[in-house]
Amino acid sequence: MTREEFKLICPAPIGERDTIQMAHGGGGRLMRRLIEDVFLPAFHNPALDARHDSAVLDIGGARLAFTTDGYVVSPLFFPGGDIGRLAVFGTVNDLAMAGARPLALSAAFILEEGLPLELLRRVVASMRAAAEDAGVPLVTGDTKVVDRGKGDGVFISTAGVGLVPPGVDVRPARVRPDDAILLSGDVGRHGVAILSVRDGLRFEGAPESDCAPLAGPVGALIESGIEVHCLRDLTRGGLASALNEIAADAALSITVEETAIPVIPAVAGACEILGLDPLYVANEGRFIAFLPAAQAEKAIEVLRGHPFSAGACMIGRAASGSATVTLRGRLGGSRPLDLLSGEQLPRIC
Amino acid sequence: MTREEFKLICPAPIGERDTIQMAHGGGGRLMRRLIEDVFLPAFHNPALDARHDSAVLDIGGARLAFTTDGYVVSPLFFPGGDIGRLAVFGTVNDLAMAGARPLALSAAFILEEGLPLELLRRVVASMRAAAEDAGVPLVTGDTKVVDRGKGDGVFISTAGVGLVPPGVDVRPARVRPDDAILLSGDVGRHGVAILSVRDGLRFEGAPESDCAPLAGPVGALIESGIEVHCLRDLTRGGLASALNEIAADAALSITVEETAIPVIPAVAGACEILGLDPLYVANEGRFIAFLPAAQAEKAIEVLRGHPFSAGACMIGRAASGSATVTLRGRLGGSRPLDLLSGEQLPRIC
């Protein structure tokens, strides 16, 4: 489905008689509206209103980052990963995006009656390996079981805590006009990897998911003295949605160069055949960084020295203006890069 | 179903070809086996191995309590509460059971396609009210949507962080022979309240759920200088399961007096008709405290001064011995109070 088709499907604001649609979980405009209409007004507080990937709490001088995500990916196993890896890396990455060093994770499992124990063991083994890769222990958990047909195998919600080092202050409001925008690698692998194993759509030659823990590259940036203003991982809704969220929350305009955004041939080819735009396809191991343009070259060098950000490059700049994202195309023309209504692919994480 | 029947149904250890059963989520022996066979060996670390309701982490001198729980209660609304209240109070209570003062909560929602927005708004409003009652802000969240028929309306996983005050050290290993065991109020209300609105079983005259935030009573105990050794809330599996868990983890024996355990007539009557033992029925606002017998009288006075533990009383004692729980009955005889295989009622939280 193209993004133009999606806009036609989901144009209306949330009404009182409406019901939840798949697109409400998609990372696009409908999800943003759900958050703004239902969740933010109810829970309204400074940490939540900051609308960052993690809340940051002051506790006796230290700054604690705290975040959660639910994982409902379908299928549970896909090229390059599985729900367990996503559940660990996704939450580690949300902590990293607040500039925090991850300390510990929790996991709440919702299991469907009839789930083979062997499959649960595989998911748990993958989570353990992922937690080791990320260097973060899983310290507390919970298990619930729902009746057959009331779940879908395994859902996992993880939460994470981390510490933000002194002097680090990473959030949308810190983005300055003229900041450079760095991208940590090529985009679109995760979404295409999931699509390649979806029932009714299986195809060969797809890339593996990029899912990876990002606390390493972020820590390297911070330790090297780069003044990082804002970070965001490119999950649901992909690069374009992340840019739109930050443009809106920072009240700035953003321009990115199409030719500067790496997309590997396997992703570009699959997207062309399926009618998808890779800039909107989800990633699980890529992020953007906003930082002073004068430090961009050094930051790229630091990121390229880390295996999970070896393909780092500069893709654009922030500027004063009003919450718009513009893509400067291959042929010199420009077009707005809007927030989608929904998500091109449901249940990719 | 009586507990004897349950033992007959689920006697075997977990095999490789086995599948998840409802009883694996029930708080009884099968859940304990799942945790011991699958989760603990995989994630093995000191904080997890402590097997407390919350992990306690040292961060620069401060002690951070961290916990999570998933909520899948069915139906979503029941006498005295709903999934939103449970999701807030349950996690607040897990923090309180580590002796911690709750700081902040997260919430991850897994919504089923087709869920009426109006119902989600009601759940969210209830969570907000519960967070206000508990005095704890909800600071970060996530929303996922699953296809119709792959969920059950709303599942919520909350996580929580709190600070353990200096000098407080509350965990099973701290229980001493001869400790007094205090109970904060009458037992069995929550499970009976849920049962009373289950399809195929609806009945009148049931009590309201006891669901309540317990950080207040626990804080009062600690502030009054009582040397609290261990705390446990009486959720899945009820009072009997909590006593068994602590007897096992503390490697001590426990004796409780049947006549000392309050059960209101509405609960006793429903349990008699349904063939349930109220000592195994879930509560969502009751806890037990282990503390020096010499301080029991003062502790009861402190607890009775708080609305959520106004019915506090002493129910028994710990003793050296080997992980057994004995109930001294009304007529003077004694019987072992075993861990059930499963749970008398599925999906009560």
Keywords:
disordered N terminus, homodimer, alpha+beta, Phosphoribosyl-aminoimidazole Synthetase, Chain A, domain 2, 5-stranded mixed β-sheet, globular, 7-stranded mixed β-sheet, 10 helices, 60s Ribosomal Protein L30, Chain: A, 349 residues, 2 domains
Descriptive overview:
The structure is a homodimer of 349-residue chains. By secondary structure, the first copy, chain A, is of the alpha+beta class. Chain A is built from 10 helices and 14 strands. In chain A, the strands form 3 sheets. A 7-stranded mixed β-sheet of chain A has the order 9-11-8-12-10-13-14. In chain A, helix 5 links the parallel strand 5 and strand 6. In chain A, helix 4 runs parallel beside helix 7. The longest helix of chain A is centred in the middle third of the chain and has 18 residues. Chain A is globular. The N terminus of chain A is likely disordered. At the A-B interface, helix 2, strand 1, strand 2, strand 5 and helix 5 of A face helix 2, strand 1, strand 2, strand 5 and helix 5 of B.
Q: CATH superfamily name of the largest domain in chain A?
A: PurM-like C-terminal domain
Total number of beta strands of chain A = 14
Query: How many discrete structural domains of chain A?
Result: 2
Q: Any idea of the CATH class of the largest domain in chain A?
A: Alpha Beta
User: Greatest contact pair?
Assistant: A-B, 83 and 83 residues
The third-level CATH topology of the largest domain in chain A is Phosphoribosyl-aminoimidazole Synthetase, Chain A, domain 2
Number of helices in the DSSP assignment of chain A? 10
Poorly predicted tracts of residues of chain A: 1-11
| Corresponding CATH architecture of the largest domain in chain A | Alpha-Beta Complex
Order of helices and strands of chain A: HHHEEEEHEHEEEHHEHEHEHEEE
Question: What is the 3D shape of chain A?
Answer: globular
Radius of gyration of chain A: 19 Å
Class derived from helix and strand content of chain A: alpha+beta
